Amino acid sequence: MKILFLGDVMGRAGRAAVTETLPRLRDEWRLDFVVVNGENATSGAGLSAAHAKALLEAGADVITLGDHAFDQRDMLQFIASEPRVLRPLNFAKAAPGQGARLFEARGGRKVLVAQALGQVFMKRPFDDPFSALDAALKSYPRGGLAQAVIVDIHAEATSEKMATGHFCDGRASLVVGTHTHVPTADAMILPRGTAYQSDAGMCGDYNSVIGMQKEEPLRRFLTGMPKERFTPADEAATLSGVYVETDDRSGAATRIAPVRLGGRLQDAGP
User: Is pLDDT of 270 > 90?
Assistant: First the structure.
């Protein structure tokens, strides 16, 4: 199976990068399944229903969220009626929607997608991500009920993301980190066949501070004092993520490659 995972979509520039590029990639790369993290697609904070629909229409099979899952209020209702949008497994127990679900890819093959929030350095204490993921992975074993398993670990600390990768090794096809918006250079296949990368990066304008216009973040770093709200950068965006190929029988990854298309980062892809 050919799978594409795109990192955090950041503001208008990130949305444009996805909606303008993903339809072509689905055809040219013959993609079977696409997951997009839409955590910051609406004004850099959360995802609106309208913008979720645009990402789905562009070719996303699933959209994952994160700690800003419900910053846009209409997502509270939209996620309850749209199964292709997932919030984290270990979010508040009263939150609507689901954190893991089995989806159908091209050719009728089944793909489990799950997302969990990390605990280290996060602003609020979330439930244990490891036990939440463990339950989901036991319910839909790789190579059994699911031909592929994709885990989005939305976390600050690379150590926690790497621990999640090893915890899921042999049970997931891909474990990929999101949230920090900076692509890491550690794409690899772990010993039991799980593709891993600590952070997929963001789909957004990299002439920025993790997707925000530079002036206000710099002011706060230099003076310790806020003056204005953060505003998403809106120049040319880079499409950033990972491409993975898997074996349908075992669900193990056979290939992983970083994806960097357009914008300011060096082009890379399968």
Answer: no
